[in-house]
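Journal club prep — side note

Before the paper discussion, L.F. wants everyone to see what a predicted structure for a comparable chain looks like in token form. Sequence:
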Amino acid sequence: MGFTTILKDSLEYTAAAFSCGMIVHSFFDEQVKVTLKKLGIIFFLTALFSAIDSFVTKQLGFGILMVFPVFICPAVILQWRSGSGAALFFKRAVCIISTEIFIGVYSLEIVMLCASLSGMNDVTEKAGMTDMRERPAFFIMYLAVMILIGLLLYFMMVRRNFTLPFRSSDIILTLAMCTITLLSLGLFLYVEANETAMFYRQILESVLLLLLILMPVMIYKNRQSAYFSEMSAHNESFLEAELEASKRYREAQEETRAFRHDIRNNLNMLSGLMKEKKYDEAEKYISDLTGELAALSPRIVTGDDMLDSLISSKLGELDRQGIALTVDGIIEGGLNWKPIDICAVFANALDNAGRACMEIGDSSEKYIRISFRKTEMQRVIKISNSTAGKVDCGRLMNGENRYTTKNDKSRHGYGLNNIRKTVEKYGGILQFSSTDNEFSITIATGGRFSG
């Protein structure tokens, strides 16, 4: 095993790690990220283990060290600094190793089918990895397929910060289609090489090659369509909340303008009562005016009109559920967020908090508390609510963005993910904390509050 083989090992397994990382990030866990530094480390370690394996093979007649750069190194390095606990680390490792094996087999089959259809002699001889590596053109094609997969996902999804988390049904569909393809490939690869058999084998090869190319596209389109349908239904609540908040704001403005319009008439009436020394009637009139003024005064004042209206639109339902909502602090100059983004964060947070409160027994206190405070460099928003028990914040912080306690996992769990993405969009940081009877979301962003 010389320098050329070591270089091939390094290129092959680094390319596999690249495309594998892109797939895992795009469809399974967006906390697994691919960087040039990680790929460089994988390339270096593969070269090192390949050289050592060559030496061990010469001494013992066999080598086993290549299992590390092939499986262990990518599984560890690709999720480096992903903030995972032990359980999630092993879950990701299994996912990465399985995906890397699939990428290798898939790329190899693509190249084998192309080689056979192009007329290269006895494609079955090229099925072995060792024989393949001895043919430069075959190896370059194999390498190119893996790199192309990674690049397509990078430009289509990773660069656009777009992910399509697979559901259980998507994973099962993918595994089923891959299994069918592999079984079909095995059925015809070793068909006897006579003219009739070769004719039918070429037809099968053409169909399988078409399936191998179209299958990922079909699965991607199906997942994309389902994802946007789910997100559309979820975002509909944001739009409804925004429309309701805007409606309430307009109604409040109209009531205020009407009161101001009538203030002169009210003052004239009051002046007339005072001149006629009808003090009891004047006092009652003042009391009525005070009541009207109190009704016009907003219960919620945060400093951001859209946020005021959004929170106010939730008050009626919260009051009916016996949930006390309090707001502490004022936002200087407002949030300066788009209305849909305000809804994405606060409508989700308030809805989640309300559901958590309803799980508490009737005898316990139900509350939601929103506070705004400032530091020298940041403004901090904290949303706390009472809970029936401690929430597993570790799963949230470790990147399980679609964590939900609901039974229908496929249709829920988007709320916290939307909150996280919206906060990060404005350069903020999101944190979760929990005690036995309270859960809190803390958002730290640039800007200032007045407390």
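L.F.'s comment for the group: The domain at 300-450 is CATH 3.30.565.10 (Heat Shock Protein 90). Keep this in mind when we get to the figures.
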